[in-house]
Every structure is written in C-alpha cells, then in structure tokens.
Design a protein that fits this description.
The protein is of the alpha/beta class and 256 residues long. It contains 8 helices and 12 strands. It is globular and about 55 Å long. This is Ornithine cyclodeaminase. GO terms for molecular function: hormone binding.
Length: 256
C-alpha cells in the first residue's frame, strides 16, 4: 500500500508531505514493513527544503505520542511491557525510559526469542532501567502498569486474563485486518484515540464494539489534555494511535 499525508501548522515556516509504503509481507523477506519519507517544503515559496528518511523519525514521533498517553493516562508507572523488538519497540524503550523516571523495569517480548535477547543486549547501555527479555507474553504483562503493542500481529499478543486491572494499553501497530489487543480487553476498557477520524481504521475497536454494543470511544487524547474528556482512574484504558501528520510537521519544524 502507498500513503500520502500532507500537514501544515498555522504560522509554521514549513509544511510537510509524508509519503509511505506499507508492505506487510516484507517481514518474511527480512525487510521493514513500512518505508516512510518526510518531504519538507518552505511555506513561503513552496520550494522543497529537505527529505527526511522517515523510519527513525516516525518511530520517534510514535513513541513520543505514546509518551503523551502515558503522561495523561497512567499514574507513576513502574513496570512497562513492550511487545515488538523492531524499530517501533526499540524507540519506545529509548523514549519512555528517558521521560519517565518512575519506571523501574521494562520487559521486552517477541515470539522470536533471539530477537528479544539481541534487542536487550543492544539497548541496555541506552537506559538506566532494568531491561528484561520476557520469556513469555504472560511474564511480560503480569503486574505491568503500561503495555505497548508495537507489532504487525493478526492475532492478540497477550491474554486478557493476564492484564492488571487499571493498566494502560497503548496500541500502535495494528490497523485494518490486524489485532494486537484482545477483543475482551478493548470491550471492557475505556478507549481514547489519537483522532476520531482514525477509528474506522482500527479493527480492534470495531471487533470490540461488536462484542459490547455499549462501547464508545471516549474521545481524542487532545480533548483529554484540554479537559474536555474525563477518564476513570483505576479502570483499564486503551490508547489507540497510529500517528498524525500534524505531529510529523511539528517534529520536522523542531529538527530543522
């Protein structure tokens, strides 16, 4: 698939267009599934200013968006579980460990145990937190305050019954025809998203609404920050996001 996402922030000296391909079969070829590029243009002249190779850029932006969710939806997290050891999973380790001093332990899990061991070995020097290669999905999730799913899985990556009540689950990998978070978890949780317009792309929410007809998305993370949306502390929360072009524009302006 090919995507094109333009974005502009009023008053900014630049605007961007994010171009990306998404080939899910690439994982079997040993290649990244997503190849994004950020085209940066001068707002006054329309001249192409620069092209940013977007994999690290997008992973950092996604992890920063997750960090916004942790800040507003989790209370002093100590134990983090991250599913996925690719560029997204690794970026979440780097970003969350730097921004949240209360974190004591980060558990990484992937069905490919060799990938987990390699990721832990490479990332340990970049964080002062205890970094653990979880031996199973259950070991990763048990008592975790925050769970991040950063995979391209077609089936849930953990069991609903292993989840701690009141945990925050952040889903960043699954889109249409994917599912990382169990339907039981989504249907029994309060759900916050990056943008209501993106809900149609999140099959995990659609499946949960089929199970629980009363399930409604509470609103967008921006509305929650503005105090126009309220959550119930102690209840399990889902923060589903896949990245907004406007956040790409904001990060590009900061870098340039």
């Amino acid at each position: 698939m090919f995507y094109s996402f333009p974005a502009f922030i009023d008053g900014s000296p630049i605007f961007i267009s994010k171009q990306a391909t998404d080939y899910r079969d690439n994982s079997s070829r040993g290649l990244p599934t997503v190849h994004p590029y950020i085209l940066v243009f001068d707002s006054e002249t329309g001249v192409l200013d620069s092209i940013i190779e977007g994999r690290y850029f997008a992973a950092t932006r996604t992890a920063l968006s997750s960090a916004v969710g942790v800040k507003h939806l989790a209370k002093h997290p100590k134990r983090i579980a991250i599913f996925g050891t690719g560029v997204q999973g690794r970026s979440h380790v780097r970003v969350l460990s730097k921004l949240f001093p209360t974190i004591e332990e980060i558990r990484l899990f992937s069905p490919a145990s060799a990938h987990v061991e390699q990721a832990v070995s490479e990332l340990q020097s970049e964080t002062s937190n205890v970094l653990i290669a979880a031996s199973s999905a259950r070991d990763a999730v048990l008592d975790a305050d925050v769970i991040v799913t950063a995979t391209s899985s077609k089936t849930p990556v953990f069991n609903h019954t292993d989840l701690k009540m009141g945990a925050l689950v952040i889903g960043v990998g699954a889109m249409k025809n994917d599912q990382e978070i169990p339907t039981e978890t989504v249907s029994s949780s309060q759900v916050v998203v990056d943008a209501l317009s993106n809900v149609v792309m999140y099959d995990e929410i659609r499946l949960a609404q089929n199970m629980n007809k009363n399930l409604k998305v509470l609103g967008e993370i921006g509305a929650l920050i503005d105090k126009n949306v309220k959550i119930h502390l102690g209840m399990t929360t889902i923060f589903k996001h896949h990245g907004l072009p406007v956040t790409d524009a904001a990060l590009a302006e900061t870098l340039l």
